[in-house]
Amino acid sequence: MHPWQLILPLGISFFVFQKISYLIDLRRGDGHIYGFLDFCMFVMFFPQLIAGPLVRHNEIIHQFGENPRRPEMWENLSRGFILFLIGVAKKVGLADTLAMVADPQFNAAAVAPLDAVHAWIGTAAYTLQIYFDFSGYSDMAIGLGLMFGLRLPLNFNAPYRAMSVRDFWRRWHITLSRFLRDYLYIPLGGNRGGAARQMVNVVVTMLLGGLWHGANWTFVAWGSLHGAGLAVNHLWQERGLRLPRPVAWLMTLLFVMAGWVLFRSPDFATAGGVMQSLAGLHGVGHITLDREYVAALIGGTAIALLGPTSQEAALQRLTPDLRLAIPAGAMLVYLLLLVGGRLPNVFIYFQF
């Protein structure tokens, strides 16, 4: 019996989630009824259609009636372009370069155990890759939207600086987190019904969030892991317990990295092998990396942990200036040439 060969459009899950949120809001008595053209524009607005952010109807449709040639048009164009350029740089300059480090390690781990150095380098590279890949797409979408005079919601806020698992999900894929909260967690009962019921609700919510990423048990395990982490986090905070900030940050980051091992691995055998390698059970080893890869790892780590967020840089810190036009244009040309000189590497979240 041969499996069915199904062809699905890119971004189908994001598309469906947006429409689900609208229908549920109507059922709850929201009362927002839109004209046909406005609703079609909401459905078909291309920058966020394929991989988010998950924009709600009441965040964008009311903006369609505003005059795009309003006084701030040129500022929106310049800031939107810079944010789009930052997104391209994240994807092409960092994520695609880091993929050349992470992919060989996880491919090798599927065949034979890695030593500790290869496992840590591969895991660190993928941790940075998925962040810059997905947040880069979000920056591009938000920047393009701003160039049309439309403000799309923030989707990332320096997630690897989080001090807890709960804090991480306030910063990572923010629009998905709030969708899961408003349309799954709260309808399941939320924090009503006692601590035990709350823990069940949060684990079920995250389990379904993991399943949304793909029909693979590793995604379900990834969602369940984060659900359990959130449940423990709730109990920890309710009891007034606190860790020193450096310890809290390090434990959160290591927890998230362990989750990315599950997320990236094709099966549990590979994930288990990488976890064992991270613990040093297959020897220490050593690795030699090209300068390009070392620069991407160091630079990516510094940007993720120390630098301003892309929205903060483009929308608050930078002031539109004609003198920035030439270097910004030259950077975009360089990045486009970089794309053409490499094998294509699609956005990770295109598969979801």
Summarize, please.
The chain is an all-alpha fold and about 350 residues long. The chain has helices at about 10-25, 35-45, 55-60, 75-110, 115-145, 165-170, 175-190, 195-210, 215-240, 245-265, 270-280, 290-305, 310-315, 325-340. The protein is built from 14 helices and no strands.
Give a verbal description of the structure.
The protein is mainly alpha-helical and 352 residues long. Helices cover 65% and strands 0% of the residues.
Task: Return the structural class.
Answer: mainly alpha
Number of strands: 0
- CA-CA gap between termini: 26 Å
Largest sheet: none
> Into which percent range does the helicity of residues fall?
55-70%
List the helices and strands and how they pair.
Elements: H1 12-27, H2 36-44, H3 57-60, H4 73-109, H5 116-147, H6 165-171, H7 174-188, H8 195-212, H9 217-238, H10 245-264, H11 268-278, H12 291-305, H13 310-317, H14 325-340
Helix pairs in contact: 4-5, 4-12, 4-13, 4-14, 5-10, 5-11, 5-12, 7-8, 8-9, 9-10, 10-11
